[in-house]
């Protein structure tokens, strides 16, 4: 379990506050949660199942960057202007998740700066992890000798 899962990223008090704004949703295999370039107005935390993050590569199939599972944040673009998805996401198994309205969570962050800072640090760690995963995956797919990192993450 990494430090970016909900249970390890936020103190219990902040997790509880965030979870008061969650609604349960489910997605069938193959359901697109979002596509690159579209408006990012919500995010999810996976309860069960797997979501693949992908990146459009001109002239090729979308490259799967990372697979997300229990407790992991799906979507970070809602937190940063211009609030447009930077990746795409698709359910690769039946998924149950908690869904959050981005406007409501950003309002909570503005009301309580300490809560907002905790959310920002969490989302920032997720972004850093996703950037690293994207770099490694793209090197593996397209560089002449791959990333040179076996089993990296």
How would you explain this protein's 3D organization?
It comes from Streptomyces toyocaensis. InterPro entries: cNMP-bd_dom, cNMP-bd_dom_sf, RmlC-like_jellyroll. This is Regulator. Pfam families: cNMP_binding. With 153 residues, the chain is of the alpha+beta class. The protein has a single domain, classed as Jelly Rolls, CATH 2.60.120.10. The chain has four helices and eight strands. Strand 4 and strand 5 form a beta hairpin. It starts with 5 loop residues before the first helix and ends in an 11-residue tail after the last helix.
State the main characteristics.
153 residues; alpha+beta; Jelly Rolls; four-stranded antiparallel sheet; cNMP-bd_dom; Regulator; RmlC-like_jellyroll
Strand content: 25-35%
Amino-to-carboxy terminus distance? 12 Å
Main-sheet strand order equals 1-8-3-6
Major pleated sheet = 4 strands, antiparallel
Count of helices? 4
Task: Name the structural class.
Answer: alpha+beta
Protein name: Regulator
Domain Cyclic nucleotide-binding: 6-75
Pfam family, one: cNMP_binding
InterPro entries: cNMP-bd_dom (IPR000595), cNMP-bd_dom_sf (IPR018490), RmlC-like_jellyroll (IPR014710)
